[in-house]
Specification:
mainly alpha, Arc Repressor Mutant, subunit A, Four Helix Bundle (Hemerythrin (Met), subunit A)
Amino acid sequence: MTASLRQSILRGELRPGERLQQERLAERLGVSRIPLRDALRRLESEGLVRIDARKGAQVAELTAGDVREIYEFRILLEEHLTRLAIRDLDEAGARKLIEMSERVDRLVRRPVEAGEARRAFYSELYRHAHRERMRRIVLRLHDDVHRYHVPKNTDASRHDHDELRECIRTRNADRGARAIREHLRRACDELVEVLGADGD
């Protein structure tokens, strides 16, 4: 049940700010309200749900400040993980990552599938860094912003992906770390702009 609710939030089926009416959710999921409350508390600990004593539960919303903080943290961790991962890649690992990255680009017009493919790619890339705690933190931070992810400049994203694939192909760890940093900075700026527009 927790996994089902998490996926509904990450896929955008439950929108940021949406009230989570427990009676209706329990009926939809075929469960009683007690396990549902437990699931909502777990999702609150992950930052996906906010629970207020008066207003009840709702899907957590991010402010522009939240986004900047998340990306600041992601840049620090992902630059480091990318450098470690690319440095230690073997030929089979590099080939798999390049194929996974190319799949992300092919799915650009199918946002839900593209998002899942993007997460799988980064999860696999950072697995090669052999820093499991860092990888889990990064994926959680990724999930925090993923449901807002609306690429505005697909040409720039493709260029970033091409650059990272070349770094993986040539095992250029330092260049790959720089590519990730610039890619995340651009993603942060785009998302802050989207949130600003939504607030107008």
